[in-house]
Specification:
Blueprint lengths: L2 E11 L5 E7 L2 E7 L3 E11 L3 H11 L2 E5 L2 E5 L11 H5 L4 E11 L3 E7 L3 E6 L3 E6 L3 E15 L3 E16 L3 E15 L4 E7 L5 E5 L4 E5 L3 E7 L4 E3 L3 E6 L2 E6 L5 E6 L4 E5 L33 H12 L5 H9 L6
Parallel strand pairs: 2-6, 2-8, 3-7, 3-9, 8-10, 9-11, 10-11, 11-12, 12-13, 13-14, 13-15, 14-16, 15-21, 16-22, 17-21, 18-22
Antiparallel strand pairs: 1-4, 4-7, 5-6, 17-20, 19-20
Length: about 350
């Protein structure tokens, strides 16, 4: 059956700080920031049909829904596409399918909300408030900045910032890598994915990285204070530092200390080294005299071990976001999280 190419184009002025929303299932998506005040969307549909006339008929059912407002634009797949555009086969018969690719151009500072299922996303040159939610799709953000929030399931996330970034990211079974000149705030949570971060940390609020079994690789730019909490977490600190605290609650003061970073994990390890990619790699001050680590306090007797079913219930609660890693640790070990 031949394939026919059809396009749907949308242009709507939203202003330099307007709002844009996109909801898709299965297409590849590219979003690019521009200096224009207009949101432009080009949807390319490859329709498998018996004839031109049949392809045109299918196009009417495959068109994306468009909602235009003052300073806003929302684009989404047709309502019958709960399982993607190939749901058209249920309407027109076996072999009648449509696949799509979406290319978007937006004002750089526009506010973005993206929801994708089985769809890979590439976004570049954006600086406004950005929210990305994806299931079974990778997210690549390049030359971005500003307030960025990401939630992903079964997909990797890669972020390259060209200015300050405030990052709040959570992934399940997906790796997260983030590089920026500066992180003004940082929260990263993964269940089984690894986290790789590099950039200067600023702000008085504590930066937090939490994993269940994922490892953390941290590229240091300037002094900081790293606190590590974990049941069986190893720390490999490859820059001048001094260590404090006990085995399950350690502090590493790098340089003279600075922004507070907390890494909590059940079984993930942490490694800290000098920045490799950042343009503003600052020298770490000479190592201060190392104080001896005080002996660990006596460990209170553990509570009775949880059954496998109870352990699984705790992990499920952690995955749903009902509890954090520290609370999961307390429940699984029967120990006070403040010890």
């Amino acid at each position: 059956m031949p394939v026919f190419v059809r396009t749907q184009e949308i242009r709507h002025p939203i202003g330099s700080h307007g709002r844009f929303a996109l909801r898709v299932t299965s297409p590849d998506v590219e979003i690019h920031g521009t200096a224009e005040q207009v949101a432009s969307v080009r949807i390319t549909l490859e329709i498998r049909a018996g004839s031109d006339a049949e392809a045109d008929e299918l196009l009417e059912h495959a068109r994306f829904r468009v909602t235009e407002g003052e300073g806003s634009l929302e684009v989404a797949e047709p309502r019958h596409a709960e399982k993607g555009l190939n749901a058209l086969a249920r309407i027109f018969g076996a072999g009648k399918t449509a696949t799509s690719a979406v290319e978007v151009q937006l004002p750089r500072a526009a506010e973005i909300r993206y929801d994708g299922v089985s769809a890979d996303l590439t976004a570049t040159d954006l600086s406004g408030m950005q929210q990305y939610r994806t299931v079974s799709g990778d997210v690549v953000l390049d030359r971005v900045s500003g307030d960025i929030r990401i939630k992903g399931v079964s997909g990797d996330v890669s972020l390259r910032g060209d200015a300050a970034v405030a990052l709040d990211a959570a992934t399940v079974s997906g790796d997260l890598s983030g590089f920026a000149p500066t992180f003004t705030s940082l929260r990263a949570v993964t269940v089984s994915g690894d986290v790789e971060l590099e950039g200067a940390l600023e702000g008085e609020a504590q930066h937090r990285i939490e994993t269940v079994s994922g490892d953390l690789s941290l590229g240091v730019v300037g002094p900081l204070t790293l606190e590590v909490r974990g049941i069986s977490t190893d720390a490999d600190i490859n820059v001048p530092h001094r260590a404090e605290g006990s085995r399950d609650r350690r502090r590493y003061v790098i340089g003279e200390g600075g922004p507070q970073v907390l890494f909590s994990s059940m079984s993930g390890d942490v490694s800290v080294g000098s920045a490799r990619r950042s343009d503003r790699t600052a020298p770490v001050p000479p190592r201060a005299p190392t104080s001896p680590i005080p002996p660990s306090p006596p460990v209170p007797p553990k509570a009775a071990a949880l059954s496998p079913q109870e352990q699984l219930a705790v992990l499920h609660a952690l995955e749903r976001g009902e509890i954090d890693v520290e609370e999961a640790t307390r429940r699984l070990t029967g120990r006070d999280a403040g010890v």
